[in-house]
Amino acid sequence: IDKGRLEAFRPISHAVITLATLVRGEDASSSFHHMFCHMVKGGGGDWLQVSEELRNPYWGAEMLTCGKQVTELGLVPLEGANE
């Protein structure tokens, strides 16, 4: 596993989650699942995925199912997300 790539992915993933939470709307075609793995150094790692089946991008085949779902981002913005 390329640790530099993992470290670079973490802040990008967090920014994408924030953006997706703010801009989901009626044009969205599917929900996203916000996932989290506590094993990622620096406070854990978050990511979005379409599938409900957990697929951890931080550890690849080593720990593909390590983590849990935090929330589901539906087809409309989360209440209060634009405040």
Describe the structure in your own words.
The structure is a single chain. With 83 residues, the chain is α+β, with helices and mostly antiparallel strands. The chain has one domain. The protein has one helix and three strands.
Strand tally is 3
H/E series? HEEE
Radius of gyration: 13 Å
Strand order across the largest sheet: 2-1-3
Overall, the morphology is globular
Cα distance, first to last residue? 39 Å
Helical content class:
25-40%
Topology of this structure?
Layout: H1 3-23, E1 32-37, E2 45-49, E3 68-73
Summarize the structure.
The chain is of the alpha+beta class. It has one helix at 3-23; strands spanning 32-37, 45-49, 68-73.
Give structural attributes.
83 residues, alpha+beta, 3-stranded antiparallel β-sheet, 3 strands, 25% helix, globular
